Amino acid sequence: MANRDYYEVLGVDSSASDQEIKKAFRRVAMKHHPDRNPDDDSAGEKFKEAQEAYEILGDSDKKATYDRLGHAGVDGNAGGGGGFDTSGFGDAFGDVFGDIFGGGRRSGPARGADLRYDLQLDLEDAVKGKTIKIDVPSSVHCRTCDGSGARPGSSPTTCNTCGGAGQVRMSQGFFQVQQTCPQCRGQGQMISDPCRDCHGRGTREENKKLSVKIPAGVDTGDRIRLGGKGEAGPNGGPVGDLYVQVHVRDHSIFVRDGSHLHCEVPISFSQAALGGELEVPTLTGKVKLKIPSETQTGKVFRLRGKGVAPVRGGGTGDLLCRVVLETPINLSDDQRELLQNFDKSLMGKGKHSPKTSNWFDGVKNFFDNLTG
User: Fold this and answer.
1) CATH code given to domain 255-325
2) What gap in Å lies between CA 212 and CA 283, rounded to an integer?
3) According to CATH, what is the number of the domain 6-100?
4) How many helices (H) does the chain have, and how many strands (E)?
5) Which of 76, 94, 333, 356 is 20 to 30 Å from 178 at the Cα level?
6) Phi-psi region of 45 (alpha: psi -120 to 50; beta: other; left: phi over 0)
7) In this predicted model, what pLDDT tens digit does every residue of 261-315 receive, in sequence order?
8) How far is residue 21's CA from residue 149's CA, in Å, rounded to a whole number?
9) Which H or E run contains 299?
10) H/E/C letters for each residue in 192-249?
C-alpha cells in the first residue's frame, strides 16, 4: 500500500483530538466497508488503509512517533502490505465496530414498548371533560415468575457462549465484528427451567381495564399519557407508557375551530325582514338570539363566551351563528298569490333591494363598456 499520509486517510489534521480521530475512522470505515460496497473492488483496500491509519493515530505513543518521523518511524508497527497486526488495536477496533454493527454489551432488562389507544369522543365530552373506561390489550409481567421467565424456585443462568455479554466477537478475514449471541439472542442469560405459565417469556397477554380522565377542552390530535400502562419490558424490565390519542367526532350542529364554535341558523323570509328573537342551542343550554330587521342571509352573530375553554388555558371562545335565509316550499295557491302580489308591490322600487339594484347597474355598465 502506498505511504499515504495517515491524517489525509482519515480526513483530519494533526491537531485532532483522540475522539475526533476515532469519529473520523468510524466515518471512513463505514463508507468503505466491503460488506457495504460489494461491487467496489477498491473498497477493501481503502478500508484496510483506514484501519492502518487508525492503528497508528489511535495510539498516543505511535501517533507521537509518526508526528516526529513520519512513516519511517512506524512502518514496523503498521500492516504495510502484509498481514494486519491487531495487537493493541483490538479494543479500539471492537469499540468502534461494535457501534457500526450493533454491538455493545448487554445493558440489562429493556424497557417495554409504548402503546397507542385511539379514543373517539363526542364534542360535548371533549369540551366538558369526562372519565372514560377503556380496555387495552397488552403484555404484562408474568405474576408466577415475576417477569424472570424462570420457574419459581429457579433462576436464569449466565450464557456459556457469550459469558453474559449478549454479544460475541467474530473474525472475518482481517477484521472483527460483534454480533448478537446466537445462543441467548442477546439476553446474556439462559432459562433451563422455564415458567409453565409464560413458557419462559416473562410476560403474558392481558386486557387492561383502565380509567382515563379526559380534561376539559381537548381536541382532535391531543394525546394523554398514562405512565407505566404500556407493554411490560422483557426480562422484568420497566413498563412502557400508554398514549391515548383523541379524535373528536363531527357534531350535527356545531363545528369547532380552536376555542370557537360555529353553527348555521335557518331563518324565514319574514324573520329576516321584520326581525325578532330566536332560540339557539349552545353546549350549556338554549339562549336568545336577537335578529334585527332587514337582516341579510349570511350575517354572522357572535355570542361571547359560548365557545370552548382550551385545555392548555386561555379564555373561553365564542359561538358564531351564521343566519341562512330559508326559502319556503310546498306553498298553497293562496300563499303563492300573496307572494306574487307582494313582489309586484316592490317592482321598480330599488330602495327595497339595494344590492339587487346595484348588481343590475353593474351588469348594465359592464355590457355598455363591452359593446362601446
Assistant:
1) 2.60.260.20
2) 22
3) 1.10.287.110
4) 10, 15
5) 76
6) alpha
7) 999 999 998 999 999 999 999 999 999 999 999 999 999 999 999 999 999 888 9
8) 44
9) none
10) CCECCCCCCCCEEEEEEEEEEEECCCCCCCCEEEECCCCCCCHHHCCCCCEEEEEEEC
Query: What count of Cα atoms within 13 Å lies in the side-chain half-sphere of residue 174?
Result: 16
Instruction: Please list the alpha-helical segments (H only) found in 70-176.
Output: 71-74, 90-100, 123-128
- Would you say the CATH fold of 255-325 matches that of 6-100? no
At the top level of CATH, the class of 108-150+200-249 is mainly beta
Cα 188 from Cα 179, distance rounded (Å) = 13
The predicted model scores a pTM of 0.58
Window from 192-196, 255-259, 265-269, 293-297 with minimum mean pLDDT: 192-196
Alpha carbon distance 33, 214 (integer Å): 53
Average pLDDT over residues 158-180: 74
Q: In degrees rounded to 5, what are phi and psi of residue 299?
A: -65, 135
